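Have a close read of the entry that follows and walk me through the local backbone shapes. See right below:
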Amino acid sequence: MTVGQCYQRGEGVAVDFVCAVASHRRAADAGQTAAQFNLAECYRTGEGVEFDFAHAFAWYHRAADGGLRYAQTELGH
């Protein structure tokens, strides 16, 4: 489990979607596909950021290009 996921789920820390997004963004910018997927989910749901389907699509696409099957599935939806 990542730090961002801990903040999203409140595991070991208080739920804080803004901190979760910041953590996901750092890891996503570093090329971690799981973080790219998690950041896309935040944009899709509006948790910690304003809902933005275009940003969600872009992050799903980056994660899918990195080979993450969950992201490939989301792009298909």
